[in-house]
Amino acid sequence: MDVDRFKDYNDTYGHPAANLALQEIARVFRESFRQTDIVARYGGDEFAVILPNTGKSEAETIILRLMRHISGIRLPRGRVTVSIGMATYPQSARDISVLVQFTEQRPVSGQKGGP
């Protein structure tokens, strides 16, 4: 998962506003995922989520619901949206680096948003 145009958001509104946006996204994660799911910050504005024992259709439903929830967050400095790619193990790939590449090339929803 990648926060759309996060650098622009950060440059426009500043680090405090960008940090608040990330905190709100983290709050949505806490509310949206199960205890068995694994969520990790993968980079500055990138996150990885592992949904154990979850089929492709169920994962797509979770992802679309998460995207709607995040785009609905009301921040003092505009809204943020996310783009999310998805891969299934072992169907998409068996090697972790290939699996990550696969997710980056397979967005679940087409349009990127932004502030």
Shape type: globular
N-to-C series of helices and strands: EHHEEHEH
The number of helical elements comes to: 4
Which percent range describes the beta-strand content? 5-15%
Helical amount = 40-55%
State mean pLDDT (0 to 100 scale): 84
Radius of gyration: 14 Å
Q: What are the SSEs and their pairings?
A:
Blueprint: E1 2-3, H1 6-13, H2 15-32, E2 38-41, E3 47-50, H3 56-71, E4 82-83, H4 96-105
Antiparallel strand pairs: 1-4, 2-3
Helix pairs in contact: 1-2, 2-3
Q: Features of this protein?
A:
two-stranded antiparallel sheet, globular, 115 residues, two-stranded antiparallel ribbon, mainly alpha, 4 strands, 45% helix, 10% strand
Overview of the molecule:
- With 115 residues, the protein is mostly helical.
- The chain is built from 4 helices and 4 strands; from the N terminus they run E-H-H-E-E-H-E-H.
- The chain has a two-stranded antiparallel sheet with strand order 1-4. Strands 2-3 form a two-stranded antiparallel sheet.
- Strand 2 and strand 3 form a beta hairpin.
- The chain is globular.
